[in-house]
Every structure is written in C-alpha cells, then in structure tokens.
Write a structure and sequence with these properties.
With about 325 residues, this protein is α+β, with helices and mostly antiparallel strands. About 25% of the residues lie in helices and about 35% in strands. The mean pLDDT is about 95.
Length: about 325
Amino acid sequence: MARWDGVLATNLLDVTSDLAALDSQGFWAVVVTFEGEVVCARFRDIRTPSPTASPSSPWHGPRPQDWSTSLDRRSYTSAVHRIREHIAAGEVYQANLCRVLSAPVSSEADITALAGLLRLHNPAPHGGVVRLRGHGLEVATASPELFLRRCGRMVNSGPIKGTGRTEDDLLEKDRTENVMIVDLVRNDLGRVCSPGSIRVPDLCAIEKHPGLVHLVSSVEGELAEGLGWPHLLEAAFPPGSVTGAPKERALRLIKDLEPSPRGPYCGAIGWVDADRNRGELAVGIRTFWIDRGARRLRFGTGAGITWGSDPQREWEETRLKARHLLSIASGTG
C-alpha cells in the first residue's frame, strides 16, 4: 500500500525500476534512493482515506537510548572542517553533510503505524508512506520539502535551505545558502524546460513547521515537448538542496565523508498519476525506513555546509531536525 494526504493506494499490480513507466498509465508510488535505486509501484485501487482511520496495528518503536549514529559529534564536526577546506580551495561552494541514525526494530513493527503517528504529531505537506514489504521497501516520510511537482508540462520545485527554532535563529548565511541552491535548481530545470520559461515566484519565504522554521523558495518552468519523467529526474536528481553546489563535486565529497549510504533519505518519495499527467515527489527528508535484513529502523538528518558554517552549530542543527521525530518514533513525543 501507499498513502499521502487524500490518497490511499492498494492492490499492487506491478513493480518496475523503469522511470518511463511513469509516462504510461495508472497510479504509481515512487521511491528513488539517494544512490539512485528506483522503485515504481502501480496500484489498482485508489481512494480517499478516512482522516481519522487508525493503523491496523500499534507502533512498536525502539527505546530512546537505543539510537546510534553513523557520525558522532567529533566525526561530524571534523567533516565540516574538511568541507570548509574544500570551499577555501575553490572546489565547492556548499555541501550537504548528513548522518544516518538507526535503532533495533522488532519484526512486528508496521511502518504504516509509524506513519500514522507522524501524521498526528508532525503533520507535513508532503508526508506519506510506501509499504512494499515483499519488495524490501518500507518508508514513512514527514517531508516538508517539494522536490518536483508536475501538472501537464508545468514543473515546480520548492528547495528548503535555512532551518532554525524561530525566525530569529536564521542567519544571513542561511539566506545566502538558499539563493545558491535556487540557482542550482534553476540550472537543473533549465536543462529540460523550454527556454525562457524558468521563474522564481518565491525566494526565501519563511515557512513554519512543528518546532522549526525554514527558508523556502519556489522554482518553476515548462517541460519541453517530447520530454517526460525520465528526462526530468535525470536532470534534477539528486535534489540540489541535499547535495550542494557545484552538484557533481559536492556528491564526491559526500561519498568521501559519509560512512553510510543515505538510502531513501534525501532521495525522492511520492506519487505519479500517469492517466492525468500529474505527480508530486518530495525530497526524502524527515524520513524513516525499515531495513528488515539488519532489523533496524533508520532515519537521516543533516545540514548544509558553507564557508560561514560553525561546526558545532551545524551539529546542533542535525540534532534539532531529528529530536522531535525521534521522540515520536520512540514513543516519547
């Protein structure tokens, strides 16, 4: 099954890794990992779920003390220093540095139950869940960030850069970083959109979420004739807000500095209605996934690093982004 606000998809028909299927027919759930692994799942039955419907089983989450991290404070701040060295050398302007947290999870854990708790305690504009247990995919997201929205040939992206507890926490560094990523997204979409169609309707708007505020921008364009979802994702993926600029150099830094793959975290999660030529993919942040092979629940958190970054402040930003959601998953939120 898969669920988003207003949409419940059940009765799986088929699963493919071919993005061209998204331009065929039917309703598809889509998950693309940060490393580029694609899962497109087509469902037969689509309906509007009851907003008060309870999950079929209670959530069995880990204890708060059982969470571990792929990068501890010392390793993370050291990596921030290394990124600043690369910035000083002129190799990169910004890079997103992430860590993956994980904790043991029981075999009874149902990702849809966790998704229900997220909807209740951390409602998000792009929240959703995809459960394909037979295909090794169980993901629940409370993402606030739009990666790609497509309606016909119109395409929109909503990069987030700049996070604080209140508006007063936001720095000039955050605005500079947001503008930098907007330029990157404009360039990405410009590769597949008609010349002259790229616009930035909103720049550095303040958006409030539970316990956080973000700076959010909007970039839109018109997809060129003859191009579809494969071309759009090839041009824009991975999302610029969770990579850096220039993107290719930032991706090499991420590979060197992060010891664990990000998986669905920082990838793309959403739906495509091929019959109506519409779709919406979120950036896979504020995202949990179950790794049944390792019997672990995983969650990612990160921060964008610029020359103006303070290593300790960036570490604290990763903690701020994770704190509320981990408390929900561990039953203390």
